[in-house]
Automatic annotation (TrEMBL):
Keyword terms, alphabetized: ATP-binding, Ligase, Magnesium, Metal-binding, Nucleotide-binding
Domain of life: Eukaryota
The family this protein is said to belong to: Belongs to the folylpolyglutamate synthase family.
Name of the molecule in the record: Mur ligase central domain-containing protein
Organism per entry: Datura stramonium (Jimsonweed)
Domain annotation Mur ligase C-terminal: ranges: 383-455
InterPro entries: Folylpolyglutamate_synth (IPR001645), Folylpolyglutamate_synth_CS (IPR018109), Mur-like_cat_sf (IPR036565), Mur_ligase_C (IPR004101), Mur_ligase_C_dom_sf (IPR036615), Mur_ligase_cen (IPR013221)
Mur ligase central domain segment(s): 96-341
Length: 546
């Protein structure tokens, strides 16, 4: 930042570089990466699903997640499950809703249950590389196999086709795949399922779970994502998510929440005679103690200490837990999952402290502060680089990522490579990440969103957002074209905070970022952070498996 001559030297050298030319960076934005092709054995399933409405590709309609006339018709999902024999009634379910943290909490809790020896089904979305990731089965937690998924689809295909016809083609991709997941769980004799809601809660396809089949509900956080689809306010989002609460079944809330939002959740629970356990209770004395390395990969050392007395008497003390998923927000997700595990113990399930610890330490999700191994960096053409992948795509998750980077890599020089959907808050996202202490450059790029370009934000649009956010923060904006000029002098702007902004194809941006951190780091560590959506994470991992 302070030595802008280095950036100018970089931009001159990058023009001559065989790795990435200026023209490639500034103009080569058409090379948008699409997701990996599924196994050919699943072609018929994918073709069937692709014939249905996919709101992950097209975007969610206004009001679709609200419990109103505009909301999704949960009745058609109930009719579909009825045709399939209501498989969701053949196992107990933990149902998780929330703006952020659902997937991580599901990973922590299902990992604990598997460590105890239970046969666990876990259903989450979206996926990173293959749709099979959305369904994990059994005691190992691996994605459903190609063979098992294909066989199950072929056995249920006639019913699914009949259901689509009966609903006049209105069944969606998510509804049908949710039904397939529940049917698979039942067929595989799942003892307990951990199910992540797709959107909101009340009208989500996963909310066909009835009270007697529900072990407990979890609401992790309430934020402003999908505002239009969920009623337009934080309060309406809270109401939508509270729709997963069932009569007499415990509710675990993550938080922390602002008082008005927590009041909505507790009021709903009270109306359903549901006891509430809060992971943000004063009895939560959990803390992040520091960091360590295991096999060269950072882990965070945490103490998870709970003494909760309201509604349930829950207590546990786990010191020196080594979490693979980094950040204060992941500690909160771990605490939320631990509260859920202790609630399950109150209902006759058995999760020992050892299984809870093992589950916490072994839980991992791709694209959540995921650090690539050195051999993976080599395959991407950036040998020796530290590359962190994170699917943050809201201002709240960007804030969490910024805090995690500052805690985990306090002295690192950083560059960002960013791709996002066009319906996200690009400016808010940029503002949060510009707070990272030693950020040298931001490269905007493009990747398909859910396998299509319709929701993809252009690299130039993203770059504009970063320009505006940088200027709001009184940062001098450089770009390759300006900084490469022989007449351009860094004199007069050396003392101000400056940032290099550029756009290009994904690999070109990563390799250009690699040159910057190599030039700038000296004895200090450097890191390339790839973020903005889980879809850019998918694209990077796709290169590694192509």
């Amino acid at each position: 930042m302070k030595n802008l001559s280095i950036l100018c030297r970089f931009t001159r050298s990058v023009q001559r570089s065989m790795v990435c030319s200026v023209a490639g960076l500034v103009h080569n934005t058409g090379h948008c990466f699409s997701t990996l092709r599924e196994d050919p054995e699943l072609d018929e399933l994918i073709e069937f699903l692709d014939s249905l409405k996919n709101f992950e590709k097209s975007g969610v309609p206004k009001g679709a997640g609200t419990d109103s006339e505009d909301g999704f018709d949960l009745g058609r999902m109930r009719r579909l499950m009825g045709l399939m024999g209501n498989p969701q009634s053949r196992f107990k379910t933990v149902h998780i809703a929330g703006t952020k943290g659902k997937g991580s909490t599901a990973a922590f809790l299902s990992s604990m249950l598997r460590a105890e020896g239970y046969s666990v089904g876990c259903y989450t979305s979206p996926h990173i590389q293959t749709i099979r990731e959305r369904i994990t089965l059994g005691r190992c937690g691996e994605p459903v196999s190609v063979k098992a998924l294909n066989h199950h689809f072929n056995r249920r295909r006639e019913i699914l086709e009949r259901a689509v016809k009966l609903e006049n083609g209105c069944l969606s991709h998510f509804e049908v795949f949710t039904a397939i997941a529940f049917s698979l769980f039942a067929e595989e004799n799942t003892e307990i399922a951990v199910v992540e809601a797709g959107l909101g809660g009340a009208r989500d396809a996963t909310n066909v779970i009835s009270g007697p089949d529900l072990a407990l509900s979890i609401i992790t956080t309430v934020g402003e994502e999908h505002l239009d689809a969920l009623g337009g306010s934080l309060e309406s989002i809270a109401v939508a998510k509270s729709g997963i609460v069932k009569n007499g079944r415990p509710l675990v809330i993550g938080g922390p929440f602002i008082p008005s939002i927590e009041c909505i959740l507790r009021r709903k629970a009270s109306s359903m005679s549901s006891p509430v356990v809060s992971a943000s209770d004063p009895g939560n004395r959990s803390a992040l103690r520091g960091f360590c390395e295991v096999s060269g990969i950072p882990r965070q050392l945490c103490d998870i200490v709970l003494q909760i007395e309201k509604d349930f008497d829950l207590s546990i003390e786990l010191l020196g837990v080594k979490l693979r998923m980094l950040g204060a927000h992941q500690l909160q997700n771990a605490v939320t999952a631990t509260c859920a595990a202790l609630c399950l113990n109150q209902q006759g399930w058995s999760l020992s402290s050892g299984s809870i610890r093992t589950g916490l330490e072994s839980a991992f999700l791709q694209g959540r502060t995921q650090i690539l191994y050195s051999q993976e960096a080599n395959l991407l053409g950036v040998p020796g680089a530290t590359i962190l992948l994170d699917g943050a795509h809201t201002k709240e998750s960007a804030r969490a990522l910024a805090k995690t980077l500052q805690m985990t890599f306090p002295k690192a020089k950083m560059v960002l490579v960013v791709a996002m959907a066009n319906d996200k808050d690009h400016l808010g996202f940029a503002r949060e990440l510009l707070s990272v202490g030693d950020l040298d450059a931001v490269f905007s790029t493009e990747v398909d969103i859910a396998g299509a370009k319709s929701r993809m934000a252009s690299a130039s649009l993203l770059r504009c957002a970063w320009v505006n956010a940088s200027r709001e923060m009184n940062m001098k904006v450089l770009d390759l074209k300006v900084a490469d000029s022989e007449e351009q002098s860094p004199q007069g702007i050396v003392e101000s905070r400056s940032i290099l902004l550029a756009e290009g194809s994904l690999l070109a941006c990563m390799r250009a970022g690699f040159k910057i951190v190599n030039e700038r780091t000296g004895t200090q560590p450097g890191i390339i952070v790839v973020t903005g959506s889980l879809h850019i994470v998918s694209a990077v991992l796709g290169y590694l498996h192509s």
